[in-house]
Amino acid sequence: MTEALPADGEPDEYTEEVLSVVERIPAGRVMSYGDIAEYVGRGGPRQVGSTMSHWGGAVPWWRVVRADGRPASGHEVRALSHYAAEGTPMRPGGDRVDMTKARWNGSTRD
DNA sequence: GCAATGACTGGTA
DNA sequence: TTACCAGCCATTG
Q1: Nucleotide whose C1' lies closest to the alpha carbon of residue A44
Q2: How many domains is chain A built from?
């Protein structure tokens, strides 16, 4: 296969790992692309973003943000709606996530 | 094999 | 705070 299709039933192992991590992110928490890349120990933030662009629709993609707390390009508005509904800690202005509090390290303990 | 691209990151101005 | 730049990693033409 040359690339992961957004509407098929056979994602690659790397894709499965990334999606798995995103699904594990609890409501009100977020992870950066780089964090996920390190968590799965494979590829880099660009690969995570690429995977999300294809398969993001199958997972809570709004819980995956950039290192500065800004949601995915072109999806900021939708993401903000979810943050408001889940009570995600936002920075003054409410335009991006407060990574200081919302960043999730993959641990079960908050 | 090389150049361009992308839901990125960190540093400097 | 925003803007620009160089680095990074895999896919695509």
Answers
A1: C9
A2: 1
pLDDT the model gives residue A17:
94
Asked if the structure places residue A23 within a domain, the reply is yes
Range of the domain at A94: 13-98
- How far in angstroms lies nucleotide C5's C1' from the CA of residue A34? 19
CATH code of residue A53: 1.10.10.10
HEC-encoded secondary structure of A39-95: HHCCCCHHHHHHHHHHHHHHCCHHHEECCCCCCCCCCHHHHHHHHHHHCCCECCCCC
pTM for the model stands at 0.91
Split chain A (110 residues) into runs of 10 and give each run's mean pLDDT: 52 90 96 96 94 94 96 94 96 92 85
Nucleotides of C under 7 A from a protein CB: 1, 7-12
